[in-house]
Each structure stands twice: as C-alpha cells, then as structure tokens.
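Need residues for this backbone.
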C-alpha cells in the first residue's frame, strides 16, 4: 500500500471511529420511544434515508443506508449497514462509509454494491459543497472495497468519474452498477435545463469508465431531476426505476412531494438508448422513495424503499431517530407490463400467535375483532359478488375511546382503495386514494403489515401497494372490520402478531 492509500485509510478510520462511538453512546441512552419499529430496518439511533448497496454477498443479505449518525436530521451522509441471513432477522454492523476525503468531504451519497470476484465493492457519490450556503455542489462517483463485507477501503483511483461527460448540471449522482456480458454498466441520475435524466457509463474494471449516452430523459413532464435510478431485466423486458423530483400532482397521481416510479422497455447496450412506455408510480402511499433493487441467488428481484418522504413531519425525531426502510418486496412484471410488489415469503418467520375467523362472515356496520396489537400481519379477503355496501375495509390501531384509528377501505363504485390517517395519532394526516385499474377480480384482498409506526398495504397480491408512516398512541391497538350502507361478504380473515427482531 502506498503512502497516499495509507493516509486515505487512516482518515477514514478516524471518521468511522468517531461516528461509531457517538452512535454507541446514543444507543446506551436508549431514548428511542414507543414508535420504534419492531421488524423494519432503521439506524440504531438518528437519521436515515435511502437504501443503498443492496446485495447478497457470500450468502448473506447486506443493506446499507444513507445515515447521519450525529443527529436525527439529515446531515453529512455516512453509509449505515445491516446484514441478514434470511431477509427478516437483521443485525447492525459498524458504519461502512464516512466522509473523509476531498472528493466526499460533505457526504457519501447514495449508490449501489457489486460482488467483484469475491470483493464487495460499493459505488457511491462523493458530495462536495462549493459554497457556504450549500447551494452549489460538485458530485463525483467513487468506490470502496471490502473482502470481509464489514470494513471498507476507499479506492486509490477515486473519484472514478470526476465530472459529467457532457455539459450537464452539477447534480450527478446515485450510481447503480450491474454487469452485462463483459462490461460493468453504471446508470446515474442527473438533469439538463431543469429536466431530469438518466445517463449510462461502462467499464471493464469498475475504475475506468467511458460514457455511453443518455438512457432516458424527461420531456418536461417527468420532473426536474431524476434521483436513484436502478436498472434491471425482468423476463424479456428491461426496467428503469427512478425517483423524479418535481412532478406536479395530477388527479390521484403524484401526490407526494417527490415520486418513485418506473419505465418498462428495452435497452440498446450499444447506443445506451432505453426505449420505453409511460411512467408508472410504484407505490401509492404517503411514504415511499428512493427504492433500490437487487437480484438474489434464487433469481428473485427484490426491492426495498425508504419508508418516508422528504419534508414530511417525523415525530420520532424528538425521540432521537428518524427514517426507516420498507419490508423487502419481490418484483414481478404483469402481462400488461406493470410492476407487481409482493412481500418476501420469508416474512412469515415473524409470525407468532395466529387469529382466524372460521368460515365466511357477513359484515355490516362495525365488526370488532378479538385480535389487537401494534405489530400485526393481516390477510382479509372480501367478495364483491353480493356486496351492496358503498364502502368496506378495516381499521387498525383503534383506541378504546374511538378517537384514534387508521382506516384502509375500498370504495365500491369508485373502485378506489383509500388509506385515511387523519386520526392516526401525532404524525401528519391526510387521505390517499388509488383506483384499482387492472383488477378484473371479484375479490378484494388486503394484505397488511403493521408495525409500531408504519402501515404497508398490499392489495390484490401486489397490484396496488401503499406504504405509510403513522404515529398512534401505543395503547391504540384495536382492529375492526366495517361496511357502510350495506353488507359485504368476508371470505377469510387471518392475523398474526409479529415478532420484534431488535429486542435482545
Ligand atoms: C434521494 C437523495 C439522493 C442522494 C441522497 C442524499 O433521497 O436525495 O439523490 O444521493 O438522497 O442523502
């Protein structure tokens, strides 16, 4: 190792030590409070945003995340790290990356991971503020490697891409790298004249990159900047997932501050051009952004997103932490080229006590269930065949005095699924509605994952997914079924209490 590399390693070690020591101290104070999630990934303390570097390496699943270890707010970005043998039981590891060099002095921004012949290689964006007001930036692509999957060394070749190839904007970030035939490919998010775009590079060795071209870009209707692009094949189609900033709300669509969605099409690797259909949102809930995917050794394409939204109120900041990732979801492409997300089956390992209703039940008015809890998986299937109710569904986190509840419902005539968090506790409220456009089924199947401050709803086997943060009182634990202005036939109901994987 030459002198320069030694210096880089030392600086990085000093910064990591500082961050890890600080986190340890915070954890000992144990101030995380009643909304601390039981089976989702969050930092041991303080802030997280995007999932980064998702990979299965030497048989274990690794998830990194954008992390500010020194406060519960966004700040100079580090990479936090957890790993798991089964996608369910996660273990916190020391922080993997800290800002330490001239090229990443103000943050190790989002990126991805690859297995380069047994070396776990992280590819990330080094962020540098060019002025005190933090209005001007320089963003460069960097790599860091590890053989044990825990300790990472920043590469002597950094930055491996020091500036955009064309006269693009300074926003140039979030590398996602994959291998196709003999080359590594990298897609990056950027913009030109306030229109978001994704650009493609290729390399033989992860260190020397050449520019291929523009993969896809906004025509003005798809946002001013594309963050966190991710590219993969599903069957014989190619998919580009990305998070455009600044698409205006339009009816039910684009209701969040920023969106995450996808384009399905075909990438011409020689020109870099991705021909594609129209943009679709991935998740219609309040809290979903910056999703990333990876391929596991069973050939599954698995996706994890950040289960929050920029500028949303996050009440847990007062308890010393903020931000969490969604449960892992398997992606499939439907015959009409829409992405379907299903919870990974491994999550069944969380199940404890099961409650079921024997046989079918006619629901009208309110039906209070025996099951209750903060951490539940619920499967409820309703028939539309003899339904004359205008609306039906379930309520979770209900308080005994009826003041708190979170409502998941189906409006029959409108074919709309809604989530209403106006009475969900101390967090932001609002109602989200999304029409089931494709389902021909005469059934509505809700598959719900409830944690202490989250609610993920999968409708009709992943045709529609809504991810949400809610902050109810810990005593609000009731579950109810309901039907308004008529009745609906409940075909089956099962619920499980779920385990707290973080409890020692
Ligand atoms: C997306 C994002 C990325 C960036 C990171 C910084 O949420 O803005 O574009 O790399 O967060 O934390």
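Answer:
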């Amino acid at each position: 190792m030459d002198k320069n590399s030694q210096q880089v390693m030392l600086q990085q070690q000093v910064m990591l030590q500082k961050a890890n020591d600080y986190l340890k101290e915070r954890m000992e104070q144990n101030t995380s409070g009643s909304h601390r999630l039981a089976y989702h990934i969050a930092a041991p303390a303080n802030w997280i945003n995007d999932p980064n570097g998702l990979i299965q390496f030497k048989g274990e699943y690794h998830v990194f995340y954008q992390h500010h270890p020194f406060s519960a707010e966004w700040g100079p970005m580090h990479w936090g790290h957890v790993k798991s043998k089964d996608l369910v039981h996660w273990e916190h590891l020391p922080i993997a990356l800290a800002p330490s060099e001239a090229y990443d002095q103000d943050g190790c921004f989002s990126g991805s991971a690859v297995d380069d012949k047994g070396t776990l290689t992280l590819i990330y964006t080094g962020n540098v503020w060019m002025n005190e007001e933090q209005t001007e930036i320089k963003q460069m692509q960097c790599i860091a490697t590890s053989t044990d999957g825990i300790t990472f060394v920043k590469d002597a070749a950094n930055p491996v891409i020091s500036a955009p190839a064309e006269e693009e904007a300074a926003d140039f970030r979030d590398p996602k790298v994959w291998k196709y035939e003999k080359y590594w490919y990298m897609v990056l998010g950027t913009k030109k004249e306030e229109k978001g775009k994704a650009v493609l590079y290729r390399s033989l060795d992860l260190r020397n990159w050449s520019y291929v071209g523009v993969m896809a870009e906004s025509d003005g209707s798809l946002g001013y900047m594309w963050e966190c692009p991710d590219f993969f094949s599903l069957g014989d189609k190619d998919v580009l997932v990305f998070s455009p900033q600044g698409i205006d709300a339009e009816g039910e669509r684009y209701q969040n501050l920023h969106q995450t969605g996808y384009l399905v099409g075909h990438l011409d690797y020689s020109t870099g051009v991705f021909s594609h259909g129209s943009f679709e949102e991935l998740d219609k809930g309040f809290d979903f952004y910056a999703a990333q995917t990876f391929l596991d050794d069973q050939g599954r394409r698995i996706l994890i997103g950040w289960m929050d939204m920029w500028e949303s109120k996050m009440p847990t900041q007062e308890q010393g932490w903020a931000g969490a990732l969604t449960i892992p979801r398997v992606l499939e492409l439907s015959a009409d080229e829409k992405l379907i997300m299903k919870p990974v089956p491994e999550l069944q390992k969380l199940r404890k006590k099961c409650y079921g209703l024997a046989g079918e039940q006619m629901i009208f008015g309110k039906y209070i269930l025996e099951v209750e809890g903060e951490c539940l998986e619920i499967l409820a299937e309703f028939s539309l065949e003899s339904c004359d109710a205008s609306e039906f569904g379930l309520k979770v986190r209900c308080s005994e005095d009826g003041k708190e509840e979170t409502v998941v419902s189906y409006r029959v005539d409108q074919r709309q699924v809604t989530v209403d968090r106006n009475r969900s506790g101390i967090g932001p409220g609002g109602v989200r509605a999304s029409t089931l456009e494709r389902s021909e089924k005469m059934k509505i199947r809700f598959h719900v994952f409830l944690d202490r401050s989250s609610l993920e709803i999968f409708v009709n086997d992943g045709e529609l997914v809504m991810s949400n943060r809610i902050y109810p009182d810990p005593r609000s634990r009731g579950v109810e079924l309901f039907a308004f202005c008529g009745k609906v036939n409940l075909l089956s109901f099962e619920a499980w209490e779920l385990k707290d994987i973080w409890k020692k």
